[in-house]
Amino acid sequence: MAGMTSIFWFRRDLRLTDHPALAAAAEEGPVVPVFVNDDRLRGPSGANRLAFLAGTLASLDADIGGHLVIRSGDPATVLAEIAAETGAGTVYATDDYGPYGRMRDDQVGEKLAAAGLAVHYRDSPYAVPPNSVVTAGGGTPFKVFTPFFRAWKVHGYPEPSGRVDAEWVEGVATETIEGVEATASDLPLAGEKAAWERAEAFLDGPVFDYVDTRNDPSVDGTSRLSPDLKWGTIHPRQLLARLGPDPSEDVFRSEICWREFYAEVLFQRPETARSSYAVKMAKMEVDTGDVADERFEAWCRGQTGYPMVDAGMRQLVAEGWMHNRVRMIVASFLVKDLHIDWTRGARFFMEHLIDGDIASNQHGWQWVAGTGTDASPYFRIFNPISQSRKFDPTAGYVRKWVPEIAHLSNKVIHEPWADPAGAPAGYPGPLVDHATERLESLDRYARLKEQW
Question: pLDDT (tens digit, 9 = 90+) per residue, 183-238?
């Protein structure tokens, strides 16, 4: 087999280190590196994610000497055309476990096999691929995170490998990398080198305070690696290999595992990308109509009158990213205070997030909405005022993103309508009363339970 040309189909693995699938292609002989612009994936992607992807592809192209081949169209058709042009007889790719990816890869495999091409899927974007960890008693998939985390740690993962040195095929016709104008004002640097700079900066210091700082949005205490994990410019096992026994490191390890748990849940239940994991929650009463639409728009613009909610939504629009603690707060407010279906919020997140991952996003929303994997979730209703006081006590985060109220004291800034001088001009009063809407949510849940 030595010396045979193969195609490597890059997808969510846009790096050159610790890359078993790429290494397998390189061992066979010269490699044609290909990225396919698939309209089925580009269509639902927001501008921020596409802009970050374009930067990532440009970085990868530079790393392989300008030989990356970019083509648009149906993947099977594109790969067959490139194989005919280059004489490649094999296509290699990293396995995809998402609902669309699995269907697409089955179709690509069948079509290329009919054309005489072999397709090999190796490795995955996860340290432990979905369907690898099951319950000890029944051999069934885990439905709750904590036992999954214990089994996941016991299962383990391969040690990361080094950089792949491939002989890249030159001179293959390519399209230019499409520039997409982001809606966010400032996206992070993209590519494998930038990912490792972020990783090293986090692993050399902040990770050891992670247990104390990860919930404080005013502190740069999180890794900011979610966009890099999304596009595979860094692999989770590369991060896991750097973590030791420190309690903060184990908390960060668990956050990596949450990503893998949600990938597992979506793999087992692909319909939950659009519908409730807890089927009995699907009939929960939600608000629709003009008033609901107006409230949803206020939430999207960061104009709810609740500073922590508004700060989070403004950060999302400005940066294409939001602190994880704040993601939970704004999601709870939309679902439990405004009584709007979680799918609307999840869709808005996916339109703006550079790290938008269907499994993590949809199931993170379902965890908050009470429709997901948690055993008794609906009673968890985040109080946007107490959450703001607890996790942003000096209001550094709120002051940054809601400058209209930055002059207020720490005592009143979390509920500016309580200021004796009155709410600041230019900032709205509270869109709804949290205490009232909390009771309404619990009443709706009680009425739903009567139907079970």
Answer: 998 899 999 999 999 999 999 999 999 999 999 999 999 999 999 999 999 999 99
* Burial of residue 436 (number of CB atoms within 10 Å: 0-12, 13-18, 19+): exposed
| pLDDT > 60? residue 2 | no
Positive or negative, the CA dihedral 23, 265, 234, 245 is negative
Beta-bridge partners for 168 = 31
Report the predicted TM-score, pTM, of the whole model to 2 decimal places: 0.95
Which is nearest to 366 in space by CA: 452, 449, 269? 269
SS (H, E, C) 307-350: HHHHHHHHHHHHHCCCCHHHHHHHHHHHHHHCCCCHHHHHHHHH
Rounded CA-CA distance 79/70 in Å is: 11
The pLDDT tens digits for 286-298 are 999 999 999 999 9
pLDDT digits (tens, 9 = 90+) for 388-422: 999 999 999 999 999 999 999 999 999 999 888 87
CA dist 307 and 407 (Å) reads 13
- Band of pLDDT at residue 138, cut at 50, 70 and 90: confident
- Nearest Cα to Cα of residue 206 among 190, 225, 192, 193: 225
8 Å CB contact between 25 and 49: no
CA dist., res. 163 & res. 156, Å (int): 22
pLDDT for the residue numbered 1 = 43
pLDDT at 375: 65
